[in-house]
Amino acid sequence: MYFVNDAHQSNYYKLVEFYHSVNDPEYKSLCYILALPEIYNRTSGKFGDEGPMEWMYKFQDKEVEVEDILTKKKNVIIERTYEEDESGNGIETEAYSTLSSGYRKLILLGANLFNSSYDDFNLCDALRTWDNELIKVYQQAVLVRLDREVN
Protein backbone atom coordinates (compact mmCIF):
# COMPACT_ATOMS: atom_id res chain seq x y z
CA MET A 1 0.00 0.00 0.00
CA TYR A 2 1.31 3.46 -0.86
CA PHE A 3 1.97 5.95 1.96
CA VAL A 4 3.67 9.32 1.54
CA ASN A 5 5.78 8.60 4.65
CA ASP A 6 5.88 6.61 7.89
CA ALA A 7 3.70 9.15 9.71
CA HIS A 8 0.98 8.72 7.07
CA GLN A 9 1.04 4.96 7.60
CA SER A 10 0.97 5.25 11.39
CA ASN A 11 -1.86 7.81 11.31
CA TYR A 12 -3.86 5.60 8.95
CA TYR A 13 -3.75 2.58 11.24
CA LYS A 14 -4.67 4.74 14.26
CA LEU A 15 -7.73 6.11 12.45
CA VAL A 16 -8.81 2.71 11.15
CA GLU A 17 -8.63 1.39 14.71
CA PHE A 18 -10.42 4.42 16.20
CA TYR A 19 -13.32 4.15 13.73
CA HIS A 20 -13.41 0.32 13.95
CA SER A 21 -13.17 0.21 10.18
CA VAL A 22 -10.84 -2.70 9.42
CA ASN A 23 -13.58 -4.31 7.31
CA ASP A 24 -15.21 -1.10 6.06
CA PRO A 25 -13.68 0.19 2.81
CA GLU A 26 -15.80 3.36 2.87
CA TYR A 27 -14.33 4.42 6.21
CA LYS A 28 -10.87 3.15 5.35
CA SER A 29 -10.63 5.21 2.16
CA LEU A 30 -11.54 8.37 4.07
CA CYS A 31 -9.18 7.45 6.93
CA TYR A 32 -6.40 6.98 4.37
CA ILE A 33 -6.81 10.57 3.19
CA LEU A 34 -7.32 12.09 6.65
CA ALA A 35 -4.15 10.31 7.80
CA LEU A 36 -1.99 12.47 5.53
CA PRO A 37 0.27 14.40 7.93
CA GLU A 38 -0.72 17.75 6.37
CA ILE A 39 -4.33 17.03 7.36
CA TYR A 40 -3.90 14.84 10.45
CA ASN A 41 -1.60 17.26 12.26
CA ARG A 42 -4.08 20.14 11.96
CA THR A 43 -6.54 18.28 14.17
CA SER A 44 -4.07 16.35 16.33
CA GLY A 45 -5.72 13.26 14.88
CA LYS A 46 -9.13 14.17 16.32
CA PHE A 47 -11.69 14.29 13.52
CA GLY A 48 -14.83 13.56 15.51
CA ASP A 49 -16.31 10.93 17.79
CA GLU A 50 -19.51 10.71 15.77
CA GLY A 51 -17.82 10.55 12.38
CA PRO A 52 -14.67 11.55 10.53
CA MET A 53 -16.15 14.63 8.84
CA GLU A 54 -17.16 16.55 11.99
CA TRP A 55 -13.99 18.64 12.09
CA MET A 56 -14.65 20.50 8.82
CA TYR A 57 -17.39 22.87 10.02
CA LYS A 58 -17.93 24.81 13.22
CA PHE A 59 -20.69 23.63 15.52
CA GLN A 60 -22.06 24.05 19.01
CA ASP A 61 -23.20 21.18 21.22
CA LYS A 62 -25.91 21.87 23.77
CA GLU A 63 -27.22 19.54 26.46
CA VAL A 64 -31.00 19.24 26.39
CA GLU A 65 -33.10 17.44 28.97
CA VAL A 66 -35.89 15.29 27.51
CA GLU A 67 -38.51 13.15 29.18
CA ASP A 68 -39.33 9.62 28.06
CA ILE A 69 -43.04 9.54 27.22
CA LEU A 70 -43.58 6.07 28.66
CA THR A 71 -41.36 6.00 31.74
CA LYS A 72 -41.33 9.75 32.49
CA LYS A 73 -37.61 9.31 33.09
CA LYS A 74 -35.54 12.37 32.25
CA ASN A 75 -32.50 11.97 30.02
CA VAL A 76 -29.93 14.39 28.74
CA ILE A 77 -29.18 14.39 25.03
CA ILE A 78 -26.72 16.45 23.04
CA GLU A 79 -28.12 18.66 20.29
CA ARG A 80 -25.60 19.73 17.67
CA THR A 81 -26.11 22.94 15.74
CA TYR A 82 -23.78 23.80 12.89
CA GLU A 83 -22.85 27.45 12.54
CA GLU A 84 -23.87 29.14 9.29
CA ASP A 85 -23.04 32.38 7.55
CA GLU A 86 -25.71 34.83 6.37
CA SER A 87 -26.20 32.78 3.18
CA GLY A 88 -26.89 29.59 5.12
CA ASN A 89 -23.55 27.96 4.29
CA GLY A 90 -21.62 26.09 6.96
CA ILE A 91 -18.71 27.99 8.51
CA GLU A 92 -15.46 26.11 7.99
CA THR A 93 -13.05 25.48 10.82
CA GLU A 94 -9.60 27.02 10.62
CA ALA A 95 -8.07 23.54 10.31
CA TYR A 96 -10.06 22.93 7.11
CA SER A 97 -10.22 26.42 5.61
CA THR A 98 -6.45 26.96 5.67
CA LEU A 99 -5.56 23.76 3.79
CA SER A 100 -4.33 24.13 0.22
CA SER A 101 -6.85 23.54 -2.54
CA GLY A 102 -5.19 20.24 -3.42
CA TYR A 103 -5.64 18.85 0.09
CA ARG A 104 -9.19 20.23 0.29
CA LYS A 105 -10.01 18.41 -2.93
CA LEU A 106 -8.53 15.20 -1.50
CA ILE A 107 -10.81 15.56 1.52
CA LEU A 108 -13.80 16.03 -0.79
CA LEU A 109 -12.69 12.91 -2.69
CA GLY A 110 -12.53 11.02 0.60
CA ALA A 111 -15.98 12.28 1.58
CA ASN A 112 -17.33 11.22 -1.80
CA LEU A 113 -15.77 7.75 -1.51
CA PHE A 114 -17.17 7.52 2.03
CA ASN A 115 -20.66 8.74 1.20
CA SER A 116 -21.43 9.72 -2.37
CA SER A 117 -23.84 12.45 -1.25
CA TYR A 118 -20.97 14.95 -1.25
CA ASP A 119 -21.64 16.60 -4.61
CA ASP A 120 -18.91 19.24 -4.29
CA PHE A 121 -16.19 16.95 -5.62
CA ASN A 122 -15.12 17.45 -9.25
CA LEU A 123 -12.49 14.96 -10.41
CA CYS A 124 -11.31 16.97 -13.44
CA ASP A 125 -10.82 20.06 -11.28
CA ALA A 126 -9.00 18.03 -8.63
CA LEU A 127 -6.64 16.38 -11.12
CA ARG A 128 -5.46 19.83 -12.22
CA THR A 129 -4.42 20.72 -8.66
CA TRP A 130 -2.67 17.53 -7.53
CA ASP A 131 1.05 16.92 -7.94
CA ASN A 132 2.44 13.43 -8.60
CA GLU A 133 2.43 12.51 -4.91
CA LEU A 134 -1.21 13.47 -4.41
CA ILE A 135 -2.14 11.62 -7.62
CA LYS A 136 -0.66 8.49 -6.00
CA VAL A 137 -2.72 9.21 -2.87
CA TYR A 138 -5.83 9.55 -5.06
CA GLN A 139 -5.11 6.24 -6.77
CA GLN A 140 -4.51 4.42 -3.49
CA ALA A 141 -7.65 5.90 -1.89
CA VAL A 142 -9.73 4.55 -4.78
CA LEU A 143 -8.11 1.12 -4.43
CA VAL A 144 -8.84 1.13 -0.69
CA ARG A 145 -12.48 2.04 -1.40
CA LEU A 146 -12.70 -0.82 -3.91
CA ASP A 147 -11.22 -3.06 -1.20
CA ARG A 148 -8.19 -3.75 -3.40
CA GLU A 149 -5.33 -2.64 -1.19
CA VAL A 150 -2.11 -3.65 -2.90
CA ASN A 151 1.54 -3.30 -1.99
Q: What do you see in this structure?
A:
This protein is of the alpha+beta class. The chain has two domains: 6-50 and 96-145, no CATH class; 58-91, no CATH class. Helices cover 44% and strands 12% of the residues. It has seven helices and two strands. It has helices at residues 6-18, 25-34, 37-40, 94-97, 101-114, 123-129, 132-145; strands at residues 59-67, 74-82. It has a two-stranded antiparallel sheet. It is globular. The chain starts with 5 loop residues before the first helix and ends in a 6-residue tail after the last helix. The model has no long low-confidence stretch (mean pLDDT 91).
Tag the structure with descriptive keywords:
2 domains, plasmid, 12% strand, 7 helices, DUF2538, DUF2538 family protein, alpha+beta, 151 residues, globular
Write the layout of secondary structure elements.
Elements: H1 6-18, H2 25-34, H3 37-40, E1 59-67, E2 74-82, H4 94-97, H5 101-114, H6 123-129, H7 132-145
**Discrete helix count:** 7
User: Can you write the helix and strand succession as a string?
Assistant: HHHEEHHHH
- What structural category do the secondary elements indicate? alpha+beta
Low-confidence stretches: none
Strands of the widest sheet, in order across it, are: 1-2
Helical content class: 40-55%
Mean pLDDT: 91
In short, what is this structure?
This protein has 151 residues and is of the alpha+beta class. It folds into two domains: 6-50 and 96-145, no CATH class; 58-91, no CATH class.
